[in-house]
Design goal:
This protein is 33% helix and 19% strand. The chain is of the alpha/beta class. The strands form 3 sheets. It has an 8-stranded parallel β-sheet. The longest helix is centred in the middle third of the chain and has 16 residues, at 148-163.
């Protein structure tokens, strides 16, 4: 039985670090990873290269191990100047433009309402080889909440793919069977996958009681969806790679009548991913490394990490909470035991 895994240091190609007094803690929690791709949905959103540069410098200031490599994204809305796109590739720490439909998740009120109005951006991004990172959900009260990813793909993402076939696209935090199928049948499209969409189903949101710390967007879906996502990861398909979508909210914003969406996993995310592989009887080093440490870098044309980490078979208890500035944040599976532990980077 495998007791130790030594793998290339993993990357997290979708993480939320927040800002101000939360940032010192969230950066520290992310430091088991080598590369991190930081989301731009701050208040106000990151819509210029200069804003992204300042935010990146703040992240590096709080990084203690001096080896964390933060990569940045810009927020797609009318405040994003097309001139920024022409200058985008002059900065090797910029990786993509993030599309949030208005109203679908935290700070998405700055997002877009009419996809067609941004086709000129997509055309330019296609020419300049700038990836489009998509939160693929519709914001329509007439659509079943659990179908919002599928409907967005059917109505919008399929059209974007067909009109701009050379545009590189990442379907972020894919959560449905239909989302995986869309990626598999498409050229130039990849997807990030979270630990919670590999380990949880919508039952975990409601049983044994309503759990706001398992509420995220896109929302957890059925066992069939989870198993379909798991199957493609276990297959080793290079179009899929790790992106935690770790999204910290203070307890008072989660345990309330209007709970914020987001599952916090960053400090234990690598161990959660390894738990997934073990549950599925796949501790194959190559499969694990490709998903956690290789596929994402290849998609973004980044060098594969030279550093390694060691993960051992050792019980660790997930804390009840973690500090978050002057507040605290409750992680996924709080107070439960994990059977794997990262002991070195």
């Amino acid at each position: 039985m495998i007791q130790t895994l030594k793998i290339i240091q993993p990357d997290d190609f979708h993480i939320h670090l927040r800002q101000q007094n939360y940032l010192k803690d969230t950066v520290r929690y992310a430091e088991k990873f080598k590369k991190i791709l930081v989301m731009p949905n701050l208040t106000p959103p990151i819509v210029s290269i200069q804003q992204a540069k300042i935010y990146r410098e703040e992240i590096l200031f709080y990084s203690k191990n001096n080896s964390l490599e933060p990569y940045m994204t810009l927020y797609l809305n009318k405040s994003l100047s097309k001139q920024e796109l022409f200058e985008f590739r002059d900065h090797n720490w910029l990786l993509g433009i993030k599309l949030y439909p208005s109203g679908v998740t935290t700070h998405s009120e700055y997002g877009i309402d009419k996809i067609e109005e941004y086709f000129s951006y997509f055309e330019l991004m296609e020419k300049l080889n700038i990836p489009l990172l998509v939160h693929a959900e519709v914001n329509d009260d007439n659509i079943d909440f659990f179908d919002r990813e599928k409907v967005f793909i059917d109505l919008y993402l399929s059209r974007i793919r067909n009109v701009f076939p050379e545009l590189k696209i990442v379907l972020e935090h894919v959560s449905s069977k239909e989302g995986v199928e869309f990626v598999l049948e498409s050229q130039n499209i990849a997807a990030t996958i979270t630990p919670h969409h590999l380990l949880l189903t919508r039952n975990d949101l409601f049983l044994p009681r309503l759990n706001p710390h398992h509420y995220c967007l896109p929302v957890l879906k059925t066992k069939e969806d989870r198993d379909f996502i798991a199957k493609v990861v276990l297959s080793g398909n290079p179009k899929f790679f790790a992106g935690t979508d770790s999204a910290p909210h203070p307890v008072y914003k989660k345990e309330c009548s209007l709970s914020s969406a987001g599952i916090f996993t960053s400090p234990i995310a690598i161990e959660l991913y390894i738990t997934f592989f073990e549950k599925n009887r796949c501790l194959d080093k190559t499969v694990i490394e490709n998903f956690l440490s290789v596929n994402g870098s290849k998609f973004y044309h980044l060098p594969i990490n030279q550093t390694t980490i060691t993960i051992v078979k050792e019980i660790q208890k997930i804390p009840e909470s973690y500090p978050l500035g002057n507040d605290k944040v409750i992680p996924m599976w709080a107070n439960r035991n994990l059977t794997w532990k990262v002991i070195s980077n």
